[in-house]
Design brief:
The protein has twelve helices and 14 strands. The chain is an alpha/beta fold. The strands form four sheets. Strands 3-4-5-8-9-10-11-14 form an eight-stranded parallel β-barrel. A two-stranded antiparallel ribbon has the order 1-2. Helix 9 packs across helix 10. The two termini are about 35 Å apart. It binds NADP nicotinamide-adenine-dinucleotide phosphate.
């Protein structure tokens, strides 16, 4: 497993992170097993959010921490806030009081006294950076959150947010997989009169790389917006044949090659895997040990249906 330095204290975190959005499919003992398997495989980073299954994912993780008390301290624990699910409406809320109350709820559910990182989950068009800065300062000085980051934000939104913060933005969590590459396509097609040339993200990857912000890729195995897994899918025959070929050359599985493809996109990159199966955790962790060549990376990109000008 390869590790990167994260946040103010340069904590050593694994390039493969375990996403916990789907753990409500498991019982507490199965979650303990998933966490122990992750640690054994070198994965020391957990990603969750207050809104996953309306708090149930955090509660289950908290129960797993209580069941096996050594677990919490062995992980870098990241949660998210800002997607507000009122009984009658779901919307985004980055107001100071809401951020602070979300963290307090997360800490209670997770049975812990602090989060190692808090992400703002999806940009709130009504955000006021100085108000968010006040919330972050309070959470930091109370010792409730040690680092802060964002998710699904473009560079201008990050710059705007930064104008009100005293602390750095450590990470940006965004959708990225072999089959979801708008952030990459636009760069290849600069100034072309075609669809991939449309820059939808404003240069997220370049902005994060320039500013030392860790890119965290979510849904690394999916195509579309949770449409399904591309490995083994008849919709991606060419991609699968290239993944299989490179997998057999490297003596790993196709899924490992697909995750390694994501990891190569930036030096400060983490792949947030979402499996609920211990066997897949063990396998996926191998992506942290291999390095694709530039040629393999491009071959996979093209096999996913992309073109280069
Ligand atoms: N910031 C955001 O807006 C955002 C949005 C979505 C997710 N996330 C984070 O990212 C994490 C990962 O997202 P995700 O769950 O969509 O990631 P994912 O790893 O792309 O998808 C996981 C799903 O794919 C299945 N799967 C994985 N590998 C497979 C394979 N080789 N063959 C067949 N099925 C396979 C898993 O089934 P099994 O469980 O059976 O293995 C699971 O249902 C989440 O847990 C969450 O922490 C963040």
């Amino acid at each position: 497993m390869k590790y990167i330095e994260f946040g103010a204290n340069k904590q050593k975190v694994s390039k493969i992170a375990l996403g916990c959005m789907r753990i409500p499919e498991l019982n507490v003992l199965e979650i303990v097993n998933l966490l122990e398997t992750s640690l054994d495989a070198g994965i020391n980073f957990l990603d969750i959010a207050d809104c996953y299954s309306k708090g149930k994912a955090e509660s289950l993780l908290g129960e797993a921490f209580s069941k096996q008390t050594s677990l919490r301290d062995n992980f870098f624990l990241q949660s998210k806030c800002g997607i507000r699910k009122d009984p009658d409406l779901t919307y985004y809320d980055f107001s100071k009081d809401y951020i602070i109350s979300c963290v307090e709820g997360s800490l209670k559910r997770l049975n812990t006294d602090h989060l190692d990182c808090l992400l703002l989950h999806r940009p709130d068009a009504l955000m006021d950076p100085s108000e968010i800065g006040e919330a972050f300062n309070k959470l930091l000085s109370d010792g409730k959150v040690l680092n802060f980051g964002v998710s699904n934000m473009n560079p201008m939104q990050m710059k705007y947010l930064k104008s009100g913060l005293d602390c750095p933005i450590c990470a940006n969590q965004v959708q990225l997989s072999v089959c979801h590459t708008p952030m990459i396509n636009a760069g290849f097609n600069t100034n072309m009169d075609n669809d991939p040339a449309i820059m939808r993200d404003g240069g997220i990857l370049e902005y994060c790389k320039l500013n030392g912000i860790v890119v965290q890729a979510w849904s690394v195995m999916q195509y579309g917006f949770f449409k399904g897994v591309f490995v083994g899918s008849p919709l991606y025959l060419k991609l699968n044949s290239v993944l299989d070929k490179i997998a057999s050359e490297l003596n790993v599985s196709s899924q490992v090659v697909a995750i390694a493809w994501v990891l190569k996109v930036a030096k400060l990159m983490q792949a947030v895997i979402g499996t609920t199966k211990a066997t897949r955790v063990i396998d996926s962790a191998k992506a942290g040990d291999i390095e694709l060549t530039r040629k393999q990376w491009y071959e996979i990109y093209l096999a996913a249906g992309n073109e280069l000008p």
